Amino acid sequence: MLATINTTLISILAAIFTLGILILIHELGHFLAARSVGIRVERFSIGFPPRFLSFRNKVDGLWVTIHIPWFLQKLFNAALVEYRFRRKNPKAGDTEYNVSWTPLGGYVKMAGTIDESLDTSIKGKPWEFTSKKRWQQLFVISAGVIMNTILAWFLFSTIFLSNGVPEMTNSAVVGSLSGSQARPVYPAEQAGIQPGDRIVSVNNQQINSWDDLIDVIHSLPGKTVDITWERDRVLQSATLTTVSETVPTENGVETYGMIGIGPETIQREVGFFEAAKLGAQNTYSFGTLMVRSLGMLISGDASMKELGGPVAIAKMAGDMARQGWLDVFYFMAILSVNLAFINILPIPGLDGGQFIIIAIEGLIRRPLPIKAKVVIQQVGMVLLLGLIIYVTIQDIAKL
After folding, report:
1. Contact 144, 29 (CB under 8 A)
2. Is 27 a catalytic residue?
3. Is 137 a residue whose pLDDT tops 70?
4. What are the residue boundaries of the structural domains of the chain, listed by start?
5. What is the pTM of this model?
6. CATH number of the domain at 167-267, please?
7. Which of 14, 70, 109, 213 meets the CB 3.0–4.6 Å disulfide criterion with 321?
8. In Å, what is the CA distance from 323 to each residue of 161, 174, 311, 317, 328?
9. What is the rounded CA–CA span in Å between residue 105 and residue 351?
10. Of 27, 96, 128, 264, which is the active-site residue?
11. Quick one: average pLDDT of 327-355?
12. Which pLDDT belongs to residue 118?
């Protein structure tokens, strides 16, 4: 019981850490981009409402506000508690900085925007979002995706620089056993194969290298095979059935046979520039993988049931946390690419949806009606909420 509680707690904390940082970095991108082109940022929040602490520079000093939760307001006979810190040469600021109760991520409220708050108070002031040039608006909207992409590149590059690059030895030695959320144990592990074992033959076909093994296993999806391996100079054998896996590749969607083993690898040290190059390559690779995966969903080659939501992310984050910090950062880098890709999709309520609206306004040379934008935002929010609820239910069903 105690172990289960500890596992759950680690998963929750790891999810808060990974998702919190990723979303915060995303919103920081919008914040910095908006400030750089002269858009007034009314509020920057770490976490989501309700608010807990607020900081605001005013002409008479720094004001700190504690927002008392509604269920404690009668006890304290107040909704707010404010305190002023006197400062030399105080300067009033446009932005209110918040720490909110919900720890995942944050948000940015820019003047003159129709966002999640559905605020339609656009007055045409020069510091408002809608008063800026189209390219400036597009830059601000894209900045979150850009920051997530940069973060993924930075994390990948840092991992390569500190840990080196894993390179296959191409020997037929098993380096690791693999699994997934949907299938934690693969046939190889069920058959008793362990890391360090050397695969000798498959269906009486001699295996001399990892390439030989991959060629045979991949060509037999869902087939029964006889496999022989060597451990401590003793031969062992078993009959198992390969798993049929649909995999997005550069040549399209292909079906491979798999038994759940990984190759033996060695770590090669790399310098700064090679690490940066490898970081960019990994970021690009995971981005194209997301594109191919979306194509599989659209074509029907993959099921919506395979999507992972907050619960799945929490579980995977907890698993990574128990393995070590490098695994957490690698997982965070992959999630950062995913977050960038998802946000750039032309879906109402996401950055990509707003990007399309701004582009359309640029083409027709006039803004869309505010009521139309509000409806688009509302539809997008309902769709996104529905998707989150759906994948969460699927996650819980898989537990």
Report:
1. yes
2. yes
3. yes
4. 1-38+111-164+271-399, 41-110, 167-267
5. 0.77
6. 2.30.42.10
7. 14
8. 19, 20, 19, 10, 8
9. 16
10. 27
11. 86
12. 45
